[in-house]
Amino acid sequence: MRRMPSPNTDDIDGLKATIAAQSAELYAQALLIEKLKLQIAKQNRFRFGARSEGLDQLDLMIEGNERDLAPSPSPESEAPLTATGQAKRQALPDHLPRETSVHSPDVTGCSVCGKPMRKMSEDVREILDFVPGRFVVRRHVCEKLSCRDCGVIVEGALPTMPIEKGAPGPGLLAHVLVSKFADHLPFYRQSAIYARDGVDVSRSTMAGWVTKMAALLAPLAARIEAHVLAGDAIHTDDTPIPVLDPGRGRTKTGRYWTHVRDERPRASLMPPAVFYRYSPNRKAEHPRDHLKHYAGFLHADGYAGYEQLYQTEVIAEVACMAHIRRKLFDVHKATGSPVAEEALSRIARLYAVERRIRGEPPDERRSVRQADAKPLFEDLRAWLQAVLPSLPPRGELAKAMRYAIARMKRLEIYLEDGRLEIDNNAAERSVRGIGLGRKNYLFAGADSGGESGAVLYTLVETAKLNSVDPQAWLTQVIATIADHPMKRIDELLPWNFKPMSFCHA
User: Fold this and answer.
1) How far apart are CA 145 and CA 155, in angstroms?
2) Mean pLDDT of 169-186
């Protein structure tokens, strides 16, 4: 601590001024320590700790978890128990191909009487094994036929290729896309994997394939975008992506914007979907452009760039309880504050209500919220306002509580409409894959690469939302889209996917 000058001990006013100055300095240092502890706790949790935001001794019952969206397993699907309480090994899936090896005793006759032996029974043991993916070369032979009498020549037609004058078939192209945008494998790793099979595919070649596929499949991504914007409530968020910036010797920060329509929590049969857009920066003009044709509710964070959208009065804001909770959780994790813990416990009760009504129709959801969630919501807001004056006004906890009070004003609309959600977790889930990819491939090569990525993330993530295998779906789409009538392109959307047998190009 900085040493203060020693005042005259007979100067009472001077002593008071010294004490006040030292108290102010100590207060400022305490605030700085609290802020640094919070930053260190966040960094340690991000680098070394579990990413879960659960609290010891608290069942927070947070929704927005993928397993909540999946159907509950039936009793028949659960593994039976042995007499000792251990789970029995379940039978291997019937749809997997079987290769049978028969092991007969190495005998020619009975060892006692010498007569031939007959089969009495057999013991069968099934082993689950894995055969690595393999390359195949598909030879297309176009025969020419001629008439010996009049000289007419006809030739078989070559199937439409995904890339004209290119070597890759639809299965390989789909595999490259899924590996990059679903499994987060950068091109150099894919190239190394292919090299183990003696196939040389360079990174630049794969990058070229991705650009061509993004252009080929862009109409399909546009139809998914139209489907999302036709919803009455969507979720939006954005996440950074490093992009090479030639001439400056470093990367710049581009953005991926995500827009999600997922009505499954309200028992809707409309298929879920997500579309992405890329922009070279985070200016407010980008979300305004993405959503210029949208009218409805918008679940979003507090980004100021959305404010002009709300002023149009055709888009209504719905704030996010998860953002409120996260700021309080960070303070509790760093300081162990009992006030923050109490706030988290109160928020947990709101999420418990949401857990009960997941999958119910909107009218039922609104009725339960009015009866059970609204009193809890109002009690939480009143408690925050009552406790806030007793906290250091510049402390991190006070900042988190002021943020909560402000955002709750824009969240309470969810209590009045069963179509809405308590948080924006649907959008946050949709950017997780981009976060994983960012750690692996590090950056996009150019703005054009970000735009291609937005198209392909739209396709892959929408397929996953609909529990469709993106590899099988994209293989079929890439093989057929060039010859498919554009007026019937909706037949190729992932929720309309029906596997069929066809000849790979």
Assistant:
1) 6
2) 92
